[in-house]
Amino acid sequence: MTQDELKQAVARAAIEYVIDGEIIGVGTGSTANFFIDELATIKSRIRGAVASSEATASRLHAHGISVYDLNDVASMPVYIDGADEINAQGAMIKGGGAALTREKIVASVARKFICIADGSKLVETLGKFPLPVEVIPMAHACVARALAALGGQPELRLKDGKPMTTDNGCFILDVKGLRITDPVALEAQINNIVGVVTVGLFAQRGADVGLLGTEEGVKKIEF
Ligand SMILES: O=C(CO)[C@H](O)[C@H](O)COP(=O)(O)O
Where is substrate annotated to bind (predicted)? Predict the structure, then answer.
């Protein structure tokens, strides 16, 4: 099976968690895109969705799915999104697609986080994938120094030779070299650095369910 087929299989499996008549939180990235395409096939069953990025909002709109402003939604049954890495406790690294801040916000309003990913994303220790940290532009250098003091090697994410700008008008530092043995503690520590908007560690509020695509089928893990 190709990686795309594995992503498609988990996207299809996630439909089981969609509750009729409700608003669904939707993530960002290639796996989330497969989920949006699946959601479109049952769109008459739901009220709509809250998007975690402009890209996701456009794709939902293109399928004719109503997109709600999070400020008008007090609670959602589920948030469904991919991950760059996930461990056996449901802690994740996210933000490869630069949507980490809105992803964390939308997920915080959902009662359940369903992580959909191909099986290669399941790791013993988080940190091989560079950890994305969204920062206020004027603070990127001082935040980078603070991250280096924690043992990481931060690199400003570039696009066309310039700092890549997120949907929030901020920058991303990708931090290599962190062996993340205590994800909850590191999430709090990095969030505490002045100038950090959000760290792409989703550990304090990790996934509740993982749907992982493997050659043997979709593996479900409850955390
Ligand atoms: O966190 C994310 C975007 O900010 C994505 O969920 C993560 O990068 C995984 O993406 P993909 O499904 O394309 O592998």
Answer: 28-31, 81-84, 94-97, 121
Distance CA 81, CA 114 (A): 7
Phi–psi pair at 150, nearest 5 degrees: -85, 0
Q: What is the pLDDT of residues 121-170, one digit of tens each?
A: 999 999 999 999 999 999 999 999 999 999 999 999 999 999 999 999 99
| CATH number 3.30.70.260 is the correct assignment for the domain at 131-199 | yes
Task: Indicate if ligand 1 lies below 6 Å from the C-beta of 132.
Answer: no
CB–CB of 102/57 below 8 Å?
A: no
Active site residue 187: no
Question: From the CB of 130, is ligand 1 less than 6 Å away?
Answer: no
- What atom of ligand 1 comes closest to residue 200's alpha carbon? 1
Token couple for 71: 């400020």
Of the candidates 103, 134, 155, 222, the residue annotated as catalytic is 103
Domain 3-123+204-222, CATH class in plain words: alpha beta
Q: What is the pTM of this model?
A: 0.97
